[in-house]
C-alpha cells in the first residue's frame, strides 16, 4: 500500500515528513510512504515580509489543494503555519507529541537577550516576536529576516545582525541545539499558536488512512493546540499578526496564556485562563473574547489597517 505525503521542500519540512514516513513504515510493514514535494506561495516569495504579502495559509494552501484533488493522501504541517479554519473536506486528526514550543535567542557575540547593546539589530520573520521584543526593548532595530534556517544563521554569522530569534523546535529537529544561546521563557515571549507541534491533515472521508496514523497521536498535544487554535480563530487572526497563545496541561486542568499586541509593542494585552482539559476550545474562545473586550479589538483593527 502506497501513501503519498504532501510536503514543502524546505529542509525542515522534509525532515518532519521523513520522521512520519519512518514511524509509519516501521509500524505498518505493508505500507510505503512516498513524499511529494509541493511549492507553496510562501516558498516562492522570499524578497518580501510575509506580513506584507497578506492572506492566510501561505505555506499550506497548495498542499491542501493537492489533498482535496486526491494527488496526495496526507500532509505533514508545522501547526504554526496552519490557518484557524481548514478547507471543507479536510481534517487534522493526528497530532504527534510536541517539541519544545519556546523561542530561541541565537547570537555570535552575546549569550543572553539581556546582554544585547542599545540599538542592536535583531532579525526575525515574525510580527509576534517583534512586538514582544520591542515591548521590553524599544531601542532595538528589529529587521525582517526570511529564508531557511541555514540562510538566517549565515546572515547572523556575517554580521548583518547582533542576534536572531528562531523556533527552538526547528533548531532541535535540525540537530542544531548547540546554536541556541538562550531558550526564552514563556514569560519573556509567548510562542506562536501551535509552535513546535506537527499536525497530520487528511481528507475527512478517508478513515482507512486515519486508522494507519492514529498511533502517532498525542492527546496532551492535541488538547493544548486545540485551545490555542480556538483562541486564534475567535480573534480571526492569521500567522502574520502579533497574536500569541500557549496552553499547558496540569493533570485534568488546562491553562492558556494569550496575547494581542500593536506592531511596535507600544500596547500589549496579555491574560490567561484556566479550565478543565475537555473544555480546551471553550477556554480558547473565552480568553480571546476577554482580550477583545479589554481593547484587543481596537489593536487588531489598527494592525490590519497599518498592514493594508
Topology:
Blueprint: E1 2-7, H1 11-27, E2 32-37, H2 41-44, H3 50-53, H4 61-68, E3 74-78, E4 90-94, E5 103-106, E6 121-124, H5 127-136, E7 141-144, H6 149-157, E8 163-167, H7 168-173, E9 182-183, E10 198-203, H8 207-213, H9 219-235, E11 243-250, E12 253-261, E13 268-276, H10 280-307
Parallel strand pairs: 1-2, 1-3, 6-7, 6-8
Antiparallel strand pairs: 3-10, 4-10, 5-8, 5-9, 11-12, 12-13
Helix pairs in contact: 9-10
Question: What does this molecule look like?
Answer:
This protein has 308 residues and is an alpha/beta fold. It folds into 3 domains: 1-96 and 197-217, Periplasmic binding protein-like II (D-Maltodextrin-Binding Protein, domain 2, 3-Layer(aba) Sandwich), CATH 3.40.190.10; 103-183, Periplasmic binding protein-like II (D-Maltodextrin-Binding Protein, domain 2, 3-Layer(aba) Sandwich); 219-308, Porphobilinogen deaminase, C-terminal domain (Double Stranded RNA Binding Domain, 2-Layer Sandwich), CATH 3.30.160.40. The protein has helices at 11-27, 41-44, 50-53, 61-68, 127-136, 149-157, 168-173, 207-213, 219-235, 280-307, and strands at 2-7, 32-37, 74-78, 90-94, 103-106, 121-124, 141-144, 163-167, 182-183, 198-203, 243-250, 253-261, 268-276. The strands form 3 sheets. A 5-stranded mixed beta sheet has the order 2-1-3-10-4, with helices on both faces. α9 (219-235) crosses α10. The protein is globular.
Amino acid at each position: 500500500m502506497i501513501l503519498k505525503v504532501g510536503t514543502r521542500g524546505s529542509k525542515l519540512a522534509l525532515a518532519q515528513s521523513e520522521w512520519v514516513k519512518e514511524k509509519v513504515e516501521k509500524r505498518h510493514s505493508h505500507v510505503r510512504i512516498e513524499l511529494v514535494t509541493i511549492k507553496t506561495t510562501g516558498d516562492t516569495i522570499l524578497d518580501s515580509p510575509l506580513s506584507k504579502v497578506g492572506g492566510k495559509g501561505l505555506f499550506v494552501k497548495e498542499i491542501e489543494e493537492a489533498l482535496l484533488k486526491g494527488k496526495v493522501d496526507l500532509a505533514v504541517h508545522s501547526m504554526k503555519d496552519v490557518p484557524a479554519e481548514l478547507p471543507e473536506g479536510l481534517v487534522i486528526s493526528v497530532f504527534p507529541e510536541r517539541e519544545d514550543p519556546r523561542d530561541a535567542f541565537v547570537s555570535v557575540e552575546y549569550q543572553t537577550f539581556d546582554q544585547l547593546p542599545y540599538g542592536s539589530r535583531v532579525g526575525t520573520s515574525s510580527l509576534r516576536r517583534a512586538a514582544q521584543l520591542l515591548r521590553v526593548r524599544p531601542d532595538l532595530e528589529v529587521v525582517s529576516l526570511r529564508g531557511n534556517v541555514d540562510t538566517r544563521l549565515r546572515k547572523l554569522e556575517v554580521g548583518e545582525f547582533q542576534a536572531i530569534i528562531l523556533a527552538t523546535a526547528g533548531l532541535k529537529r535540525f540537530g542544531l541545539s548547540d546554536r541556541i544561546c538562550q531558550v526564552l521563557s514563556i514569560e519573556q515571549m509567548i510562542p506562536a499558536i501551535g509552535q513546535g507541534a506537527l499536525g497530520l491533515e487528511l481528507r475527512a472521508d478517508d478513515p482507512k488512512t486515519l486508522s494507519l496514523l492514529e498511533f502517532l497521536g498525542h492527546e496532551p498535544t492535541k488538547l493544548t493546540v486545540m485551545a490555542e487554535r480556538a483562541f486564534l480563530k475567535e480573534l480571526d487572526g492569521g500567522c502574520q499578526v502579533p497574536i500569541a497563545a500557549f496552553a499547558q496541561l496540569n493533570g485534568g486542568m488546562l491553562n492558556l496564556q494569550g496575547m494581542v499586541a500593536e506592531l511596535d509593542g507600544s500596547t500589549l494585552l496579555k491574560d490567561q485562563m484556566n479550565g478543565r482539559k475537555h473544555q480546551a476550545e471553550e477556554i480558547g474562545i473565552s480568553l480571546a473574547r476577554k482580550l477583545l473586550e479589554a481593547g484587543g479589538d481596537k489593536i487588531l483593527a489598527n494592525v490590519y489597517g497599518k498592514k493594508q
